[in-house]
Amino acid sequence: MFNDTFSMTSAPNTLVPFTYSGVAWDVDVGRKFANPPDMSNNTWGKYEKPAAWSKQANMLDPNNTSNNGLTNVDFMVWMRTAALPNFRKLYRRLDRGNVNYPAYSNGLPAGTYQLQIDYSKWKNK
Predict the structure, then answer these.
(1) Considering just the CA atoms, what is the radius of gyration of the chain in Å?
(2) Dihedral through CA 96, CA 102, CA 108, CA 110, nearest 10?
(3) Does a structural domain hold residue 124?
(4) 123 occurs within a structural domain
(5) Residue 95 lies in domain
(6) How do residues 68-107 score in pLDDT, each as one tens digit?
(7) 68: closest CA among 81, 78, 55?
């Protein structure tokens, strides 16, 4: 699940800060998706993960425990049904409030950017 990763850099090799805050719909975050009461391996160990998932559901985001399981932002966006046959799903937003990157507080400055996509091909086990 969500094996591909994206990153963007500007010259000279400066990472562009992105956030997943505000990407999922409020109704999905507040009402539609919820984790089981016990997020430990004991709960998630009862379920078999799909073969293509590289991680268990409770280990999707090692940096933010509230972004794991069914409340994972990428999972909620992926599960949101599109109303029309042509659609886009938001991945991330530019983090304009990141104090470590003040150059992006007003958006992307003019310049050259490189988008890197790390594609992880699904392997049938």
Answers:
(1) 17
(2) 170
(3) no
(4) no
(5) 5-118
(6) 888 999 989 989 998 899 998 888 999 999 999 998 999 9
(7) 55
